[in-house]
Amino acid sequence: MAADVDNWHTRLRASGHRLTPQRQLVLEAVAKLGHATPEAIVHEVRQTASAVNISTVYRTLDLLEELELVSHAHLGHGAPTYHVTGVDPHVHLVCGACGAIQEISPERLAGIVGELRAELGFVVDMDHLTLAGRCAECLALGRR
Question: What are this entry's molecular-function GO terms (predicted)?
Answer without folding.
Answer: DNA-binding transcription factor activity; transcription cis-regulatory region binding; zinc ion binding
